[in-house]
Amino acid sequence: MQFQGGIFDVDGVLVESPHARAWRETLEELFRGEWLEFVDRTRYQPAAFGADVYLDHVSGKPRLAGAEAALVYFGVPDASQRAPRYAELKQRRIIELIEHGEFEAFDDALRFILAVRDMGIRVAAASSSKNAGLFLKQIRLDTFATAQGKRYDFVSAEMSLFDLFDADVSGRDFPEGKPHPEIFETAARELSLPPEVCFVVEDAVSGIEAAKAGMMAALGIARHDDADRLGEAGADLVVPTLDDVSLGALREGRLERRGTEQTAGPTRTTDAS
């Protein structure tokens, strides 16, 4: 069965966004100011809000749910009541960072998604973040392709990454966030495709779990030395860079690492090394 759809998370997959930075800096600001009086009753320390906390408790969740999850993790009293304030200030901070260009697109991701689209595979963006479109619209594909020495019939002058997608379900208010599969199921439906012919590209455990719950192939990108965790979550293939994915195998409906392509055997393989 060949792949007909590719569904991409945004933060951590396509762009190195400042989401984690915004969550961390906003909480630090709150504990230096209006929440100072009870900081000693929590487990919070500025250095403790690392990438692992963001990936395990915040990434992939709708904004309010992510805010509450972080506050619960740090033992903040009345976390559900305080979460809206935290989420509001974080949103202000992320907009500031985006407007100042404090993010970068991953070159390997742009090479990969252009190659996927060139195969005739339809693509969708599926991020829990309401800010995903702000990132995607600032990334120029025409200049990137030119710099890479590539020409694509579907890339036009001043085309952004946002323009490449056949569907975008990012930032919608789904009743449940990842690991519930609804966001990916909706993306497949808006691509007019059954889930079984789609693969999902994710960097978070909750995203991998959501893809598998939705009966889709899961490609994990381990940008945080977390290949084992993504593999344990059920990823069919885990790679440190999307340049390592075999495009030939992908064209035939298999997720395999470049250089380890199989001529026969399972349609999808797991490689979390």
Task: Characterise the protein shown here.
With 273 residues, the protein is an alpha/beta fold. The chain folds into two domains: 5-15 and 103-251, HAD superfamily/HAD-like (Rossmann fold), CATH 3.40.50.1000; 18-99, DNA polymerase, domain 1, CATH 1.10.150.240. Helix content is 41%, strand content 10%. It has twelve helices and eight strands. The protein has helices at residues 19-32, 51-58, 63-73, 79-99, 107-118, 132-136, 141-147, 161-164, 182-190, 205-213, 227-232, 247-251; strands at residues 5-8, 15-16, 104-105, 122-125, 167-168, 198-202, 217-221, 237-239. The strands form two sheets. The chain has a six-stranded parallel beta sheet, with helices on both faces. The longest helix is centred in the N-terminal third of the chain and has 21 residues, at 79-99. The chain is globular. The relative contact order is 0.15. Mean pLDDT is 92; it is low at 263-273.
| Number of DSSP helical runs | 12
Assembly state (oligomeric): single chain
**How do the SSEs run, as a string of H and E?**
EEHHHHEHEHHHEHEHEHEH
Helical residues, percent: 40-55%
Strand order of the largest sheet: 5-4-1-6-7-8
How does the overall form come out from the CA principal axes?
globular
Calculate the mean pLDDT score and round it. 92
Low-pLDDT residue intervals, each spanning 5 or more residues: 263-273
Number of E-state strands: 8
For this structure, what is the CATH class of the largest domain?
Alpha Beta
- How many domains in all? 2
Distance between the termini: 25 Å
